[in-house]
């Protein structure tokens, strides 16, 4: 654990900003490698976005949640996870602005992404049920935590089956961007691509650890609630790889990778709660969080449902050529952020 008491608030703030730059810069490199790996392996953008890009860009967040939970900061830990999911879902709306051709959800819809979004709603609803249930823990761990991991793995298996044997396909239009392999110079082997991707994951993971420690120090020093710091400060910083890689994927004309990276990254982020419960040694973490953190869980469910409806509706153009679901996602994020700041 880092000893940050000796440093001034200004130094901590600068270090926090430096970690944000590191996470954004190295996280931005992930989308390119993930797209090439998707083409080389034949697994497809949506599935690679689900596994590699989603989990890889989530590394700063999970490190932050685990370290803060181990330090006893339950609210900061869980709100970091929920705030990250909220921010990342809103990032898709921002990426929609950069995709000039048509509404992003129209171009990049896939059966895999629809399935992943549905599983995400289940993964967030379960912790809400655990919060409302009587407190119970075995060796300090709520029985729901291993269930969350099992549901996530079942969701990944389901995504693979949908990719291999789809029983539903989106209607093809002139604006539908199909998942077609791009040409690359093949100057790097597939093994080297995996090594490079893994190196980036390690770098952003270390930066995520520093963000968590600095977040705890700033929360204590400034007298801010853990829910506020987690849902807005640490969550936004650790989610920067998703913002950068999503926009990068859109500019590479890989909308399925962009949507898959966010939706599946959000699925992976939901496991932060289970991981935090294992790290939190004072009992069930589901019963140590505040109403403010529970609010963010509800907001995640609502925003995911809006995104899911947007992919099903597949509106071509809304205001400014972005879909109405994107407008709603930005509005919901703004309302949630405003309420959290007002609550303090």
Q: Describe it for me?
A:
With 344 residues, this protein is mainly alpha-helical. The protein has a single domain (9-181, 189-343), classed as Up-down Bundle (A middle domain of Talin 1). The chain has 14 helices and no strands. The protein has helices at 9-28, 30-41, 45-57, 59-70, 74-98, 104-107, 111-132, 144-164, 190-222, 226-238, 240-251, 255-279, 291-313, 324-343. Helix 1 packs parallel to helix 11 and helix 7 runs antiparallel to helix 8.
SSE-based structural type: mainly alpha
Number of DSSP helical runs: 14
When the domains are counted, the total is 1
CATH class: Mainly Alpha
The overall pLDDT average reads: 80
What is the H/E string?
HHHHHHHHHHHHHH
Biggest sheet, in brief? none
CATH architecture: Up-down Bundle
Give me the Rg, rounded: 19 Å
The beta-strand count equals 0
Q: Low-confidence parts, pLDDT < 50 over ≥5 residues?
A: none
Tell me the fraction of residues in β-strands, as a range: under 5%
The global form is globular
Give the end-to-end Cα distance, rounded to a whole number of Å: 27 Å
CATH homologous superfamily grouping: NCX, central ion-binding region
CATH topology, by name, is A middle domain of Talin 1
Helix content: over 70%
């Amino acid at each position: 654990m880092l000893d940050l008491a000796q440093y001034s608030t200004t130094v901590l703030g600068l270090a926090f900003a430096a970690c944000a730059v590191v996470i954004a810069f190295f996280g931005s490199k992930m989308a390119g490698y993930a797209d090439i790996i998707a083409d080389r392996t034949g697994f497809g953008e949506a599935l690679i976005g689900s596994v590699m890009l989603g989990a890889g860009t989530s590394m700063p967040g999970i490190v932050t949640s685990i370290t803060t939970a181990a330090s006893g900061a339950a609210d900061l830990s869980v709100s970091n996870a929920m705030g990250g999911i909220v921010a990342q879902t809103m990032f898709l709306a921002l990426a929609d602005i950069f995709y000039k051709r048509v509404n992003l959800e129209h171009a990049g819809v896939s059966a895999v992404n629809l399935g992943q979004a549905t599983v995400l709603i289940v993964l967030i609803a379960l912790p809400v049920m655990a919060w409302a249930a009587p407190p119970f823990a075995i060796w300090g761990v709520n029985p729901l935590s291993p269930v969350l991991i099992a549901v996530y793995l079942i969701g990944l298996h389901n995504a693979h089956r949908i990719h291999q044997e789809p029983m539903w396909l989106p209607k093809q239009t002139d604006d539908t961007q199909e998942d077609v392999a791009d040409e690359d110079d093949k100057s790097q082997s597939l093994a080297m691509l995996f090594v490079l991707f893994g190196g980036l994951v390690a770098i952003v993971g270390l930066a995520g650890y520093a963000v968590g420690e600095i977040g705890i120090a700033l929360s204590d020093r400034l007298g801010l609630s853990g829910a506020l710091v987690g849902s807005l400060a640490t969550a936004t910083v650790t989610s920067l790889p998703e913002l950068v890689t999503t926009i990068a994927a859109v500019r590479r004309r890989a909308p399925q990778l962009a949507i898959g990276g966010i939706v599946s990254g959000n699925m992976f982020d939901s496991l932060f709660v289970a991981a935090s419960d294992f790290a939190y040694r004072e009992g069930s973490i589901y019963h140590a969080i505040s109403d403010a953190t529970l609010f963010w869980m509800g907001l995640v469910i609502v925003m995911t449902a809006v995104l899911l409806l947007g992919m099903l509706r597949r509106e071509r153009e809304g205001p400014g050529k972005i879909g109405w679901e994107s407008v709603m996602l930005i509005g919901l994020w703004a309302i949630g952020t405003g309420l959290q700041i007002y609550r303090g």
